[in-house]
Amino acid sequence: MLVQEKVLRGITTLLILRNLEKSPSHGYVLQKEISTELKQDLPSGAIYILLKNLERKQLIRRESKVEVNGRMITQYRITAEGKRFLKRHVAPLETVEGVLGDLIRDIRDMD
Question: Mean pLDDT, to the nearest integer, of 19-39?
Answer without folding.
Answer: 94
